[in-house]
Amino acid sequence: MKSLELVNIRKDYGGAVAVAGMSMQIARGELVSLLGPSGCGKTTTLRMVAGFVAPSAGSVLIDGRDVTRLAPYERDTALVFQSYALFPHMTVAQNVGFGLEMRKVGRAEREAQSLEALRRVRLEHLADRYPRQLSGGQQQRVALARGLVLNPAVFLLDEPLSNLDAKLRGEVRSEIRALQQSLELTTLMVTHDQEEALTMSDRLVLMEGGRVRQAGTAQDLYERPADAFVAEFVGRSNVIEGRAEGGGFRTACGTLLPAAAAGAAGGSFYAIRPEKIVLAREDAGEGVGGALREILYLGAQTEYTVMLGQTPVTVIAATPGPDDALAGLRTGDPVRLSWPGASARLLGA
Amino acid sequence: MRLTGAIYRGGIVLAYTVMLLPVVLLAVTSVFRDAIIAFPPSGLSLEWYRNALGRDEFLDGFVTSFKVAAIATLIGVPAGTAASLALVRSNLRAKQAITTFLLGPIIVPGIVAGTALYLTYLLAQTRLDRDIVGTLPGLVAAHVLLTIPWTVRVVTAGLQGLDRSVEEAALNLGARHATVFWRVTLPMMRPAIVAASMFSFIQSFENLELTLLLVGPGMSTLPIAMLNYLEFQIDPTLAAVATIQIVVIAAMMLVTDRYVKLSRIV
To answer: pTM for the full model?
Structure first.
């Protein structure tokens, strides 16, 4: 059975469409990310699940029950807010116990369960503190504990990592995923950060303009993007305009690029990931010739920008060692790029 | 760099001096022995404190002022808080007009508002055939016109800075709207409400202009009793009264600060 099911939900604000009829399902224990640029409708969708926004059409089902018309407090969801939204006048333990109190759980039981939830996020020693006495990362964990103590049918995460610094982000990411998996929480997460979505989710739903552009696993979206938007939003891609021609793809400025015969017919975009391209010196004799315009040293990797005629192409490769053929390459040098046609994809807009 | 730092510090010292010097002078002159303030004084004495505490008009004035301020605060703060909630939270039309209307009493010069009230009271008195001018209810009604605007100002500002998602979190955790209000919204508004109560009380307690025409025999406030005294005497008794008043208000602020950190509100 599906724990969460959205059936063709839609939200209009006056004339503006925030969500234009979207459907999705989440199985029990699954973490699904709603990914997309700001204004794509992902947050509105999350708020419709929580009950803060009433859908203009369609329905929301939790454990098979239609909750579309229920108030937020009548739904078995727990939302972790982007700002954490802790109660500033209550201690950590009182914050975590609030939901249990609303469910009329007795005091002793409430305290025991709150402490258990705090133990799960390793904060039991801070139970008597007030939120303002905690760091951002600790507040985040209190917010998590406050939700998971209720063992909700659907766990909702709104940009859970956006207020944390880069170092903490990686830690919290693994921690949330581990908690979610060990408790088998059915989770819907909203994020605009594709790395967050790729690393944490069982499945991703990429939205744009209130619609689903593509849904699938991280590999589906990365390896087999449905269109140019997906290819550019998930990971990095060189997206080149042109048209299919014979066994290849002719760019707008005339270069012929290799393509697998099975490419989408009539696709006017060509997408190739920067790490799939092999960069070689001009005398390699094989591949498409171009001029090196920029070299960005990133440490373990180096990013090259190569001009194929008027078209810039990004290549990411392991930084060459001192004896490597690519060592000592300079901007302006002629180079060759090659990749198997099967690595590239022909896409619609 | 060092020069700008010095100018900055100098500016701060100057500002504090300008603010505190009159207060200090007041406290100092209150213990001068001479009836006509002279410097240096011929000696120090607590005579003026004895005089101040011994005169019924000051004691009665203090009691009246305290009563009026307390009742006006108890009426104005809940009313003003409810108005602020409506102004910030609801989809009321003409919010700006309502806000201006509610702040009106502290925008209009006090003496003008006081005169208008006086005339209104006189009219009402003849119609109702009962006293309003010079009565406690009459004074309280006038002072509610001070406590409401101050509350609206302070509480509206507080509400605008309040994170709505905290209330949504409570809803999400299973609290109904009434529970959210009592358990989350109101406690989060507490600092603003305490600050509003303090301002309201002090504004009412020290008000002179609005009250001037509304007092009557046996029903006078402390500032008016002080003004009356000043018409006939210029000895340091008033300095003594003012010093006592400052000490009482400072004590109130310190007590309040124990419960709500005022530095975080104002």
So the answer is: 0.81
**Calpha distance B43→B46 (Å, rounded):** 10
From the list A73, A87, A89, the residue facing B171 with the nearest CB is A73
Count CB-CB contacts under 10 A for residue B212.
Answer: 17
Q: Could you read off the pLDDT of A233-253 as tens digits, one per residue?
A: 988 899 988 888 777 888 888
Please determine, looking at this structure, whether the domain spanning B57-219+258-265 carries the CATH number 3.40.630.30.
no
Structure letter (DSSP) for residue A319: P
Mean pLDDT, residues B206-232: 88
Contacts of A102 in chain B (CB under 8 A): 173-175, 179
Q: How far apart are CA A312 and CA A336, in angstroms?
A: 13
Tokens standing for B95?
A: 């919010």
- Decide if A50 and B166 are in contact by the 8 Å CB cutoff: no
A12 beta partners: A17
Q: Is B162 on the interface with A (CB under 8 A)?
A: no
B192 interfacial to chain A (CB closer than 8 Å): no
User: Domain segments of chain B: what residues?
Assistant: 57-219+258-265
Nearest alpha-carbon partner for A124 in A106, A111, A137: A111
Phi, psi of B117 (to 5 degrees): -65, -40
The Cα–Cα gap between B139 and B72 comes to 9
Pairwise CA distance, residues A130 & A101, whole Å: 18
How many CB atoms sit inside 10 A of residue A139's CB?
A: 22
Q: What share of chain B is helix, strand, coil (3-state, %, to 5)?
A: 75, 0, 25
Angle subtended by helix axes B136-160 and B110-128, to nearest 10:
130
| B174 contacts A88? CB cut-off 8 A | no
